[in-house]
């Protein structure tokens, strides 16, 4: 992954974490809501995983926002 891409993945991960914390869900409860594994959510939030489009959709749905809203929160 290129450096610019890594920075954007980290930025998106931070936006996911802030949004999850805003709705007061643990990583474990949020992962269950997304139908994803807790360790995957942790990796996303730390910017270690490049999220697939399908998982962006799952995460946005669990946060009750549009995928574009997730990118807007990350200022991407």
Strand segment tally: 0
- What's the story with the biggest beta sheet? none
**Percent range for β-strand residues:** under 5%
Question: What's the CATH class label?
Answer: Mainly Alpha
Low-pLDDT runs: none
Coarse morphology: globular
Structure, described:
The chain has helices at 3-22, 27-34, 38-45, 53-62, 67-73. The chain has 76 residues and is mainly α. The protein has a single domain, classed as lambda repressor-like DNA-binding domains (434 Repressor (Amino-terminal Domain)).
List the helices and strands and how they pair.
Layout: H1 3-22, H2 27-34, H3 38-45, H4 53-62, H5 67-73
Q: What is the compact description of this entry?
A:
This protein has five helices and no strands. By secondary structure, the protein is mainly alpha-helical.
Keywords:
76 residues; mainly alpha; 434 Repressor (Amino-terminal Domain); 5 helices; 70% helix; globular
């Amino acid at each position: 992954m290129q450096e610019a891409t890594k920075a954007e993945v980290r930025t998106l991960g931070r936006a996911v974490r802030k949004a999850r914390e805003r709705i007061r869900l643990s990583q474990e409860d949020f992962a269950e809501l997304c139908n994803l594994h807790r360790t995957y959510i942790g990796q996303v939030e730390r910017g270690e995983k490049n999220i697939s489009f399908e998982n962006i959709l799952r995460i946005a749905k669990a946060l009750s926002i549009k995928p574009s809203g997730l990118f807007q929160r990350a200022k991407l």
